[in-house]
Amino acid sequence: MSGVVVVGGTAGIGLAIARARAERGDEVVLTGRDAHRADTVAKEIGAHGIALDLSRPREIASALAGVERVGHLVLAAVSRDRNTVTAYDIEAAQHLVTLKLVGYTEVVHTLVPRMTQESAVVVFGGQAKERPYPGATTVATVNAGVTGLVRTLATELAPIRVNAVHPGIVGDSPYWSDKPAEVLENYRAQTPTGRLARMRDVVDAVDFLLRNEAVDGVDLAVDGGWLLR
Questions:
Q1: Nearest to 25 by CA among 56, 8, 1
Q2: Are 1 and 71 in contact (CB under 8 A)?
């Protein structure tokens, strides 16, 4: 069995990834900001839970001290943020930038000594980097930064592979599934496939990036071709 660490694995797509790997028989460690929730969710799926707050990067090394070996690392933790230039919230911006760029990097820095040459990393970005919307000032910037982060990590850590997955609108995710039907239908109509991405599509994409040994340093969009229109 390979050791799998899913950062941000207590809810949504991160949880779906952790559950899929646990069901496959892998040794899974999942993290979440709340210790009780991380432990509870982990026990439900047969994993081990760790409390980890990416926005507090100086505490990451100690939080991950008990992780012994890492075959696959998935950095799936996200924080919803709505920020504009005209009404700029510096504190909110710093929180998200620290979480995804500094926090992600510190997790990799901490766990690299416990990886092997066959290990692989997947980092979550998002398609706001290609199609920003009002309020996406920080989100679009940070997700674009994921591209640079993945390329430098893939270069520095070779032969360990590092890739990014950039989901579009995931229609059955907890965030989007409660949106009005007309809102989702509007987005669905903007895709050539006539359908939105599903959580299982993203899980499958992550699995592909982790397992395919010829894929390295890439940005994989999972959006039903949304950017073609």
A1: 1
A2: no
Q: Which residues in 10-25 are b (16+ Cβ under 10 Å) and which e? A: bbbbbbbbbbbbbeee
User: What is the tens place of the pLDDT at every residue in 17-27?
Assistant: 999 999 999 99
Question: Do residues 146 and 105 lie in contact, with contact meaning Cβ atoms separated by under 8 Å?
Answer: no
Please answer whether residues 17 and 41 qualify as being in contact, where contact means their C-beta atoms are separated by less than 8 angstroms: no
Q: Give the chain's length.
A: 229
Average pLDDT of the residues in 119-124: 98
Among 56, 58, 46, CA closest to 77: 56
Q: Which residue's structure tokens are 């929730």?
A: 37
Distance CA 43, CA 156 (A): 35
Beta bridge partners, 222, equal 167
At residue 92, φ and ψ (nearest 5 deg) are: -65, -40
CA distance 210 to 206: 6
Contacts of residue 6, defined as CB under 8 A and 6 or more positions apart, other chains included, come to 14, 17, 18, 21, 28, 29, 30, 31, 74, 76
pTM: 0.95
